[in-house]
Automatic annotation (TrEMBL):
Protein's GO biological process: intestinal epithelial cell differentiation
CDD domains named among the record's database cross-references: AGR (cd02960)
Family to which the UniProt record says this protein belongs: Belongs to the AGR family.
A single Gene Ontology CC term: extracellular region
Organism the protein comes from: Takifugu rubripes
UniProt keywords, alphabetically: Endoplasmic reticulum, Secreted, Signal
Cited Pfam families: Thioredoxin_7 (PF13899)
Keyword Membrane: no
Compartmental location: Endoplasmic reticulum; Secreted
Gene coding for it: agr2
InterPro entries found in the cross-reference section: AGR/TXD, Thioredoxin-like_sf
Protein known as: Anterior gradient 2
Cleavable signal peptide: 1-19
SUPFAM superfamilies the record matches: Thioredoxin-like
């Protein structure tokens, strides 16, 4: 009887989580700043705030440029939000910011202004031009099939951070 009740409880827990990432500290209230990219992640509100968090916590910053009405951005957002391992790594090891507007900072658009693009910035406020996607004409672009490459680039960003300390 107890086994049956425990089994039913586990099924309910798995069904309630819906395969989404849940932080170690427990489920968080979804932030509107996530814009669907990961409701359980803590998102910076501005680039300046993200840089401050990056420096003070000694974590790399991941900046995501996207548009709400762009089909490529929407597809990448879905893949990004559904990847539990990616969400866990971001939550534990990165500062994240997503922007739906272009910046005037030329460092954040070294090869042009397009979406979606993901740029890594280290705590010394240096844009990592050496961490790119797979396209030569849009170096920081990622597509839905590039999630593994993005995760590899995240590991690279962490490794570069450690080697520069």
């Amino acid at each position: 009887m107890i086994r049956a009740a425990l089994s039913a409880f586990l099924v309910l827990v798995v069904a309630c989580t819906d395969g989404k990432y849940i932080p170690k500290t427990g489920k968080r209230i979804p932030q509107t700043l996530s814009r669907g990219w990961g409701d359980q992640l803590i998102w910076a509100q501005t680039y300046e705030e993200a840089l401050y968090w990056s420096r003070s916590r000694n974590k790399p910053l991941m900046v995501i440029f996207h548009l709400e009405d762009c089909p490529h951005s929407q597809a990448l957002k879905k893949s990004f939000a559904d990847e539990v391992e990616l969400q866990r790594s971001i939550d534990e090891e990165f500062i994240v910011l997503n922007l739906v507007y272009e910046t005037t900072d030329k460092h954040l658009s070294p090869d042009g202004q397009y979406v979606p693009r993901i740029i890594f910035v280290d705590p010394s406020m240096t844009v990592r031009a050496d961490i790119t996607g797979r396209y030569s004409n849009k170096m920081y672009a990622y597509e839905t099939g590039d999630i593994r490459l993005l995760m590899s680039n995240m590991k690279k960003a962490k490794k570069l951070l450690k080697s520069e300390l």
